[in-house]
């Protein structure tokens, strides 16, 4: 796409969009308008869920990635109408019952929650499926992908690499579901410091003895791995309780009671599961349109020709309402039709 090249070269020169003014750009029918630290691009002739794109030049996410990777960064981000609910980050020592609680939640509310499938370099357990429980990955591959900016967060846990890819969170939000992340305390700290707004829950065992019993009874680890997990558990529990990362601490003593408390803090007690929430609204931009910007409003003027008349429509996007959701997506788009005029041709 020619326009993309044109915009990227502007972005690479690190010309701040506001310096370029608000004159819309146009190329091959694609149009673009610059504002604040993003460039809105309307793609010609694409499907309604692929029409609105942002080239992020200096947004919070781009600044974080630049710092993390130590290189220049620009990022494409897809425009999504409406907002996704805040993801839920669940942390806690190995064997405390995170996976069990998450499975119960997903089983009771299948249309409401989706699991963020992490990448890991550890070997799969007997019942674990690639792409379902984890994306099992070679260390060298994962290290390369970390360098290329694929991950929202990553950490070395019990001697293996684990990471949440940007894509893992996006696919859940795109399906209209609330994302659940099962990640360690280091990962939770990274997400807390990132542009992803989430609810943070730390799951605590009733005692170290009970934790050891659960780990041993699960029977998925070797003796060496169990001892390593127990050694790390003490520090994780101290950090979980004392750091200000977590919004809630949940004691998993009796499983049913703990699950009820989890549902309560997520506002699900007494909730009757119903059909999935309606899919996000879409707008259909005709190929023939022009874009202009007035203050923090972007006006898209559309002209469509019918059999005997031409109709003009204006759609307004209030840029001040944009919200950062998962990186890779710009959520919170709210389009309003502000005028429609039919003309006889
Ligand atoms: N930072 C980070 N931690 C992860 C991720 N995925 C899993 N973990 C954590 O890695 C630890 C080990 O997970 P796992 O090997 O499945 O063992 P388990 O906790 O004993 O079930 C747990 O604390 C998980 O929460 C991730 O993507 N990022
Ligand atoms: N409240 C509980 N009481 C007794 N056993 C539990 C409880 N919660 C989980 N378990 C068991 O403990 C083991 C570890 O749970 P799991 O969900 O795999 O932990 P994690 O995902 O935190 O590593 C599993 O065998 C699970 O059935």
From TrEMBL:
GO molecular function list: ATP binding; GMP kinase activity
Family: Belongs to the guanylate kinase family.
Gene3D superfamilies in alphabetical order: P-loop containing nucleotide triphosphate hydrolases
Keyword Isomerase: no
NCBIfam families the record matches: guanyl_kin (TIGR03263)
Domain called Guanylate kinase-like: residue spans: 85-267
Catalysis performed (reactions): GMP + ATP = GDP + ADP
Top EC class for this record: transferase
Source organism superkingdom: Eukaryota
Gene name linked to the record: 11433812
Protein name in UniProt: guanylate kinase
InterPro entries associated with the record: GK/Ca_channel_bsu, Guanylate_kin-like_dom, Guanylate_kinase, Guanylate_kinase_CS, P-loop_NTPase
KW Transmembrane (keyword) present: no
Entry keywords, A to Z: ATP-binding, Kinase, Nucleotide-binding, Transferase
EC number from the UniProt entry: 2.7.4.8
């Amino acid at each position: 796409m020619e326009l993309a090249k044109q915009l990227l070269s502007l972005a690479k020169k690190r010309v701040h969009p506001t310096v370029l003014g608000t004159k819309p750009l146009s190329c091959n029918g694609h149009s673009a308008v610059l504002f604040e630290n993003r460039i809105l691009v309307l793609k010609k002739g694409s499907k309604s869920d692929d029409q609105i794109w942002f080239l992020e030049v200096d947004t919070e996410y781009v600044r974080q990635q630049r710092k993390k990777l130590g290189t220049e960064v620009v990022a494409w981000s897809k425009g999504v109408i409406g907002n996704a609910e805040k993801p839920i980050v669940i942390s806690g020592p190995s064997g405390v019952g995170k996976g069990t609680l998450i499975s119960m939640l997903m089983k009771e509310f299948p249309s409401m929650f989706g699991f963020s499938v992490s990448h890991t370099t550890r070997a799969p357990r007997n019942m674990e499926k690639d792409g379902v429980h984890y994306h099992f990955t070679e260390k060298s591959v994962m290290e390369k992908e970390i360098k290329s900016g694929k991950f929202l967060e990553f950490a070395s846990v019990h001697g293996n690499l684990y990471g949440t890819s940007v894509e893992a969170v996006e696919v859940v939000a795109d399906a209209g579901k609330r994302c659940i992340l099962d990640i360690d305390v280091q990962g939770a700290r990274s997400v807390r410091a990132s542009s992803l707004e989430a609810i943070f829950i730390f799951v605590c065992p009733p005692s170290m003895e009970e934790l050891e019993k659960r780990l041993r009874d699960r029977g998925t680890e070797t003796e060496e791995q169990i001892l390593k997990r127990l050694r790390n558990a003490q520090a994780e529990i101290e950090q979980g309780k004392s750091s200000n990362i977590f919004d809630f601490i949940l004691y998993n003593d009796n499983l049913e009671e703990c699950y009820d408390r989890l549902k309560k803090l997520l506002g699900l007690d007494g909730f009757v599961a119903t059909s999935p929430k309606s899919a996000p609204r879409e707008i259909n931009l005709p190929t023939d349109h022009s874009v202009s910007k007035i203050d923090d409003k972007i006006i898209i003027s559309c002209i469509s020709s019918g059999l005997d008349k031409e109709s003009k429509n204006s759609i307004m996007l209030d840029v001040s309402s944009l919200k950062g959701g998962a990186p890779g997506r710009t959520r919170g788009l709210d389009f309003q039709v502000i005028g429609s005029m039919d003309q006889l041709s």
